[in-house]
Amino acid sequence: MKRKGLLLIATIAIASLALIYAQSLTWQASADKDEFYFGVSFGQQTAQEAKIEIDKVKDYTNFYLINSYDLVTNETALTEVCDYAAQANLKFVVYFDFISRIAYPWHQEWLDMAKERWDDKFLGVHLRDEIGGKQIDNANMTVIEAVDYSDAANQFINYIASSNSTIDAKSRGIPMFTSDYALYWWTYLAGYETVFVELGWNISSAQQIALCRGAANMQGKDWGAIIVWKYYNPPYLASAEEIYEDMVLAYRAGAKYVVVFNHPKYPDDNPYGILSDEHFEAMQRLWNYVKANPRGISGKVNGEVALVLPKDYGWGMRRTEHILQDRIWGLWDEDEKAPTILANMNELLSKHGLKLDIIFEDERFGYEGKYSQVYFWNSTIP
Fold first, then answer.
1. Which of 262, 261, 291, 175 is nearest to 223 (CA)?
2. Predicted structure pTM score
3. In Å, what is the CA distance from 140 to each residue of 44, 127, 136, 215, 255?
4. Of 228 and 270, which is predicted with more confidence?
5. Do residues 104 and 156 touch, judged by C-beta distance below 8 A?
6. What is the rounded CA–CA span in Å between residue 211 and residue 181?
7. Which residues contact 156 (CB under 8 A, 6 or more apart)?
8. What average pLDDT does the structure give for the chain?
9. Do the Cβ atoms of 227 and 200 come closer than 8 Å?
């Protein structure tokens, strides 16, 4: 009897160990599938400055955003920096304000060469910048006039989709990235595979994530976050602690990419642009946090609750002061729906935080079964 008991205990122990081992393999497989890219942008001028920055961050990043007009107008320098990033085992995206056919005809051959030369290290092109934000802020607008919201939306989408730069990227199968702070839904519809939501400017990060992630989730696209300006004057960026908190927030919310924005030198003797030692330390903290908290094991905060806004309602939802208010599509003052939308959004953000996605009515995308709770823009929030 005693021997049978020992055998039973041994059998249970072996079974338990086998279960733990199987679970560990499942967790590891889940963690491996969770792609996450973290890095810094390069906004300075020379290849040597880029190499200095890469050497600084290569041990605690795996991604590099080459965000420099000076480099993308200099074929030799751009290729040199991409080579250096690849040798540092960083995957990278290259910024183009436009893919030139005339002023810089080498752009075409360079893009043909990029995938073959750098293989999976070259992830795509960051094409244009803040095209949605500029629309609602009346700066380099793509839509000058429209008869209604849907007309504005269609013009916005067609302008991007039919541009030569978009056609040149799409014809080569090169993924398109951009950074923005508004109109994410229609930017994805225009053909972008990934949008980096800009976190900064003293705007609610949870709100911006809800808008960008909601659009990405509904349309089956990727999204990321880029930490940008907080101030218009030096030191420009938020404190290291604030940046760290935003990076963790984006990571927990499921961002595939988290990037820290950089810019030419400030102060003049800083070889790393506007990034201080404290900012780099915050980046190392994020890298260590990610390693200690893989989302495939520890979980992430998914969009479980949806706020559905009216079709083609292109409102930035950032400000309500009359003088600084966001105009709908940059063309119309806030309408009678705006106060209700803003109140319901703020109420749901306070109740659900990162679990909220903000989406739009669109017959092409069904939200049924995707969310445990769905509220319309004019719902009464319990």
1. 175
2. 0.89
3. 23, 15, 10, 24, 28
4. 228
5. no
6. 9
7. 132, 135, 142, 143, 183, 186, 190, 314, 329
8. 89
9. yes
Q: What are 324-343's pLDDT values in tens digits?
A: 578 999 999 999 999 999 99
Q: Pull the structure tokens for residue 205.
A: 């990060």
| Distance (Å, whole) CA 256 – CA 252 | 10
| CA atoms of 224 and 354, how far apart (whole Å) | 14
- Write the pLDDT tens digit of every residue in 72-113: 999 999 999 999 999 999 999 999 999 999 999 999 999 999
Residues of each domain in the chain carrying CATH 3.20.20.80: 35-298
Average pLDDT over every residue of 107-131: 96
Cα distances from 75 to residues 85, 104, 129, 242, 255, in angstroms, run 15, 9, 21, 37, 31
The CATH class given to the 35-298 domain equals alpha beta
Structure tokens at 265: 């030198």
**CA end-to-end distance (rounded Å), the chain:** 61
Confidence class of residue 47 from pLDDT cuts 50, 70 and 90?
very high
Output the pLDDT for position 319.
66
287: closest CA among 33, 24, 57?
A: 57
E strand or H helix that includes residue 177: strand 176-180
> What burial class does residue 341 get, using C-beta atoms within 10 Å of its C-beta: 0-12 exposed, 13-18 middle, 19+ buried?
buried
